[in-house]
Each structure stands twice: as structure tokens, then as C-alpha cells.
Amino acid sequence: MKKNKIIIDKTGLLNRDSIDTLLQKVKSVLDDLEPGQIIIKNVYSAAVESLDNVFKHSDYREANDELTKKYPPHFIFETAGNTITINVRNLVLSKNINDLKVQLDKINSLKAGKLNQLYKSTLRNAQISDKGGAGLGLIIIAKVSGQRIKYDFEKINEKFSYFALQIKFNNINQ
Hints:
- By secondary structure, this protein is an alpha+beta fold.
- It contains six helices and five strands.
């Protein structure tokens, strides 16, 4: 069994500068791994979307400092054999979990052709949310990874949960 090698491990609140720095590191790691241009593009796209989702959709503004310190945003980029895994975690309002689960389960249930249709439909009918999103990020992640998006919610209290998202890319060196 191949041991996971954590390449990037960032814990803490994100801003545009820290996201740019993380994405430069991701690009550098991908260049070193030499997985091929399509894999580089796809993994980089998933990293962009996952970091953007944490930045835009985290509910840290609603939380107190103690909760923010105990459950900070977290980005991990790791490799194991021919697999790259991106893990992100962030604080979300528990009242939003059901909608997020419905969206993720719908995305995970679709095959590539139907996922492309959903992407085009969402793009045509997109309405920008209060947080600046149009609902495309998770669809893009599913499209570029070609895998089901793994996710989990850890209930913290009645108001908040810690949301975990995992994106895998297999056979990166083939």
C-alpha cells in the first residue's frame, strides 16, 4: 500500500493573496510530478474551485473567535502512488447542510454527459448569490475529477458544522 505524502497543508483563514500562494505551490508540485497537461489542468481547476468555495462560502463571519480557531479552514494537497487528493474543510451554517447535500448528491449521481448538461444549464440560468457564487464550483470539480465528490459534515453545535470535501484524481502518471 502506498503511503500518502502531504505536499501542501494550509490551516487558517484565506484571503486572495494566500489563495494565490497556494495555487502557485499546487502548480509547482504538478510541474514536478509531470502527470501530463490534461491532469495538470484538471487538478489545478479543482484546486482553484475548492479554495474559492472555502473563501466564498465559509461561514466564519457568523462565528466567534474560539470556534474559528478550533475549526479553521483547511486545505491539504497530497499524493499516494498514482493518485492526487485534495481535501478541504470549512465551517458552514448547519441550516445550509441539507441544500448542500442535495446539490452534492445530485452532482454525484450524474454521468459525464448529464453533468455537462447540468453545467451548461447552470451557466445559462446562473444567479449570483449573496456570497458571489453561481453554483458552478462543485459541478466543475466533479467534471474535472471524473470521480464522485466525497463529503462529510461534523456537527459542532446547533448553528455550525464542519464541512469536509475530498477530490481524487487517479492514474495521474498514465
